[in-house]
Automatic annotation (TrEMBL), chain A:
Keywords: 4Fe-4S, Iron, Iron-sulfur, Metal-binding
PANTHER family attached to this UniProt entry: PROTEIN NRFC
Domain of life: Bacteria
Entry GO MF terms: 4 iron, 4 sulfur cluster binding; metal ion binding
4Fe-4S ferredoxin-type domain location: 48-78, 93-124, 125-154
InterPro entries: 4Fe4S_Fe-S-bd, 4Fe4S_Fe_S_CS, DsrO-like, ET_IronSulfur_Cluster-Binding
Protein name: 4Fe-4S ferredoxin
Listed Pfam families: Fer4_11 (PF13247)
Organism: Halarcobacter anaerophilus
From TrEMBL, chain B:
Predominant place of localization: membrane
Pfam families: NrfD
Protein name as catalogued: Polysulfide reductase NrfD
UniProt similarity note: Belongs to the NrfD family.
Top-level taxonomy: Bacteria, Pseudomonadati, Campylobacterota, Epsilonproteobacteria, Campylobacterales
Length: 260, 392
């Protein structure tokens, strides 16, 4: 073999080596996690959770708006929202609010089914979606028992609440928590026994949504009226009835109720 | 619960899977069934299925090439197809969708090679008949084994048997995994049952047999030299179909009886769901598309070719409807808010009715291509001559 051929082969092998070590191509996880990017790993020492004190919620939707602004969520899509209900029959009626967001489950249903590894749980318990990797198959959205995932109509990938991980990493509170008028949303580290969330959890009876699903949600409610989960016996969402009434059909999926 | 709960405002949840997905399930299922019917002859040596074994195998191949295109169309980022192969292997044990990659790649390759082995004598004959490039192509298709002596033919049988034997579990997996995809979703009350893979397989056998009952008479009538339909094989398929329907009905009965009368809280949702869809489910899906075809298959009516042909169409459509009512229906059930959702596919673009029609046209084009490349008709003829039957 002459020198030039030998050099060519050597060069080829060297560049192959460089390429294979620098490329993320055959990662079993995803590039961000392999690179130990702190945005993908989070703070290992912490375990974040949220407590929602329903006694304090006044249904002002400022959390909903703050989230939309902070996270640049497209119009008519929501990472968090507050469901508004009336419980009881006249004259014994009361208003009830149920703020809902991704539960950042300890045993999430969405993570293990993801075929590209785009959705995963950070070491601090926050469940995130890598928008560079997600290919939009929607399996996670179908797996989520809480319906808290949606296809972002602008990015065309899965989107959901991240507990404002970008703010939390900077030592700030999630936007919804910071803006909450009644102080109904409390966010913090469960590993820290002196944190407000830890104290609330040890001092008050709390409930999670759909505990029977076994996903171990990390969003805890104080004062959750069990009736609010009895959605089947409830009437259809008035917003949807209205939308139907005026003939708005945003996309192929729309709501209805059999008894309408 | 007497208390009235009125929802004043809530967010309509996002639902993801549209018309592509039931169509995909129909295609993979029918492919698995066609493969298994071809294996009756190739693996289990059942003589009566020999004439249609090759044709069924080709249909299995074509159906499975067309099927995954539905999945790609349903993605909101189809350009990121490669991500599926590059990332997320840590989820392999828990993501049935991940298993699908390997199955969707391995299975058509296996069918292709089985078809090559099966049709080797024809390719060798063609090779000896032609010169130049054509000769090379046929030599390639015969995989370099150009002898036609009894030793080589025995080898063909052995290879065919081995590939067919591997293919049976593979075919079951390729459709069974799709049932897993749904069954694993515990948040969805309609889907969440371990019966889902076997339920999907049972209905797949129904649609696959139905499809063969539609295609075989058409191909025998118009694309063979004898131009005659083998009524006996069609009657045989109709009887087979009836047995598959028995299995399908049994599993469906188990599924619904466990889910509704003995179910936990979700039974209320399912009861409401089936009440809303009572007419379509009972009269169309069950009576028209399963029970009547079953009666036809088990009675002397199975010798009535036009009737059986229509039965084939009906069952194939019925299984499509079942796929639809399971995939789409399951997603209409509410999880975080009151009220069932409603889905109406749009006309053009991704995940639309046009996309589905395009997929079917692609399937038909592939059928034409594959049936013109492979000498299934010669094979069919040969089997009929061997049997000494001048079939009608």
């Amino acid at each position: 073999m002459d020198e030039s051929k030998r050099n060519f082969i050597k060069g080829g092998l060297a560049s192959l080596f460089v390429a294979s070590t620098s490329a993320n191509a055959f990662s079993l996880k995803n590039p961000g996690r392999d690179k130990k990017d702190s945005r993908y790993i989070g703070d290992k020492t912490k375990h974040y959770a949220m407590v929602i004190d329903l006694r304090q919620c006044i249904g002002c939707q400022s959390c909903t708006s703050a989230c939309m602004v902070e996270n640049n969520v497209p119009q008519n899509q929501n990472r968090t929202s507050v469901t508004e209900m009336e419980l009881g029959e006249f004259p014994d009626v009361r208003k009830a609010f149920l703020p809902q967001l991704c539960n950042h489950c300890d045993d999430p249903a969405c993570v293990p089914v993801c075929p590209t590894g785009a959705t995963f749980k950070r070491e601090d318990g926050i469940v995130v979606v890598d928008s560079e990797i997600c290919w939009g198959c929607g399996y996670c959205a179908n797996a989520c028992p809480y319906d808290k995932r949606f296809m972002n109509k602008e990015t065309k990938v899965m989107d959901k609440c991240t507990f404002c991980a970008h703010r939390v990493d900077e030592g700030l509170l999630p936007a919804c928590v910071e803006t909450c008028v009644g102080g109904a949303r409390i966010f913090g580290d469960l590993n820290d026994k002196t944190s407000e969330v830890s104290k609330l959890l040890s001092n008050y009876p709390t409930t999670v949504l759909k505990s029977e699903q076994g996903t171990k949600p990390q969003v805890f409610y104080i004062g959750l009226d069990g009736r609010m989960e009895e959605v089947l016996n409830a009437t259809a969402n008035l917003d949807d009835i209205m939308r139907k009434e005026i003939g708005i059909k945003e996309h192929e999926w729309a709501t209805m109720k059999g008894e309408e | 619960m007497d208390t009235l709960i009125t929802t004043l405002s809530a967010i309509t949840p996002d639902r993801i899977w549209g018309i592509d997905i039931p169509n995909y399930f129909w295609f993979t299922g029918s492919s698995a069934a066609a493969f298994i019917i071809s294996s009756f002859a190739h693996v289990f040596g059942m003589e009566k299925y020999k004439p249609i074994a090759g044709f069924s195998l080709l249909m299995a191949l074509v159906l499975l090439i067309a099927a995954p295109l539905n999945l790609i169309d349903d993605l909101s980022q189809p350009g990121r197809l490669a991500n599926f192969f590059l990332y997320g292997w840590e989820n392999f044990p828990t993501s049935p969708m991940k298993w699908g990659v390997l199955l969707l790649m391995a299975y058509p390759i296996l069918i292709f090679f089985e078809a090559l082995v099966l049709y080797r004598p024809y390719f060798v004959k063609k090779m000896n008949f032609n010169k130049g490039i054509k000769r090379k192509i046929y030599s390639l298709l015969s995989l370099g084994r150009t002898q036609l002596n009894s030793e080589e033919t025995a080898k063909d049988h052995r290879y065919g048997f081995i590939l067919g034997s591997i293919g049976i579990p593979l075919a079951l997996c390729v459709h069974g995994y799709t049932g897993y995809i749904l069954g694993a979703v515990h948040g969805n009350y309609l889907w969440s049952t371990p019966l889902m893979p076997i339920l999907f397989l049972a209905s797949a056998m129904v649609s696959g047999t139905g499809l063969l009952i539609i295609l075989i008479p058409i191909f025998q009538k118009f694309f063979t030299t004898q131009r005659r339909v083998d009524k006996s094989i069609i009657a045989e398929l109709a009887k087979l179909l009836a047995w598959f329907i028995v299995i399908d009905l049994t599993i469906r009965a188990l599924w619904l009886s466990f889910a509704i009368p003995f179910g936990n809280e979700p039974k209320n949702y399912l009861l409401e769901f089936f009440t809303m869809h009572f007419n379509i489910t009972v009269y169309i899906e069950y009576i028209l598309c399963l029970i009547i075809p079953m009666i036809i298959g088990f009675s002397k009516l199975r010798h009535n070719l036009p009737l059986v042909f229509i039965t084939g169409i009906v069952v194939a459509m019925g299984v499509w409807l079942f796929r639809w009512s399971t995939v789409i229906g399951g997603q209409t059930i509410p999880r975080s808010m009151p009220g069932f959702l409603e889905y109406s596919p749009h006309m053009i673009g991704q995940g639309s009715i046009t996309a589905i029609i395009a997929n079917w046209l692609f399937f038909i084009a592939l059928v034409c291509l594959v049936t013109s490349l492979f000498p299934w008709d010669e094979e069919m003829e040969e089997h009929y001559n061997e049997k000494g039957l001048n079939h009608e």
